[in-house]
Amino acid sequence: MESFHCSFKKVLGRCLISEMNNSCINLQEKIWMDNLYCEGHEKRLQDCRFDGWGSHDCSASEAAGVVCESKNATKFESLVAKKSLVVRSALKLEKTQNIEVRLVGGRYPNEGRVEVRIGKSGWGLVCGDGWSLLEANVICQQLQRGYGEAAVQSSYFGGHHKNISISGIKCTGREKNLSACSYVSFGDDVSCPGPDDNIAGVICAKELPDLVPDEIEIERSAYLEDRQLLFLQCAMEENCLASEAYKLDKNDYGYLYEQRRLLRFTARIGNIGTTDFRPFLPKNAWQWHMCHLHYHSMEVFAHFDIINLQGQKVAEGHKASFCLEDNNCLPGIEKKYACANYGDQGISVGCSDTYLHTVDCQWVDITDLQPGVYKFKVSINPEFKVAELNYDNNAAVCNMFYNAVSVRIFNCTLQRP
Known about the structure:
The chain is mainly beta and about 425 residues long. The chain is about 10% helix and about 30% strand.
């Protein structure tokens, strides 16, 4: 196919307007790319892996869209100089006066749009751009209403975008007061990217799940396996191999007999919280996978990373999709969730979901990894998509020694993803 520069102008329903060679073409009801997988460093969309031009099994409702944010350096530096640094310094001087927060417009006291007041200023709204469960958690705990169960980014609880007074708030989730978080802009001319109804709100809850990976099981079960591509076709569909595996010529004789070296291990995930862990997606949005013959309820549940001593990620794996169920429970606790027969998925309190080392994608492809000393990191719920009581125990971080013949995982500790 002839190469061209394509800049997307508009995505609306099934109509994609693109600009090629300075002429606009209306691509009505045509889907060009499916199962797109990018690592983030690609310069062009066609450099990512996908099923081939025009090859897809998508419906019209699955059309993809994006919202881009400007990276104008001059504007950003001006904004930081005029707003962020000046206002943040002022807030530090007034540290005894914490930011007041309240919830307004909710049906119950534990929900609503977030309104803030700093010093003697009036009440204003918070921009919803980048608003997440981490920020919601700070709001709920500051108001002593439990923990953040949902981070709302809309005008569902009312409010008008003209009343937004602070944007770009970023918290770790551990802060006791919103004033300890960072932000981008504050004041009368605050900048809030996105649609006009991009208003921050929260829903608080007293009970939440709390997932913890079994770090001892990771140490105990890790080993190497050399496996031919012939037996990895299902895993390749889910992008579970290193990028070099996808560069091999499929027309080459013996392609399927090329070997990949896999670092396999068992992941046992327990729920030590106060309520069940349920998937992020509703049941009607789960996807059936023919290879594994069950429904996948979460697109991203776990990340597996190998990091060198300079802090650079040199190999990675992931559970692109996941099936959640109760495999093992403490005495007296009955199993509630099972993947078979389109059953409900989740992890009950006191139970664990075990993905054995023999399961597809329960590995990191280290075929091209040089022998040496590394960090091995297994992160659960890494994008904080599902609310938990505590995120500081969602990752097992271990030492790893690889000598090209064997691997040893040891000294694992629980940390934040």
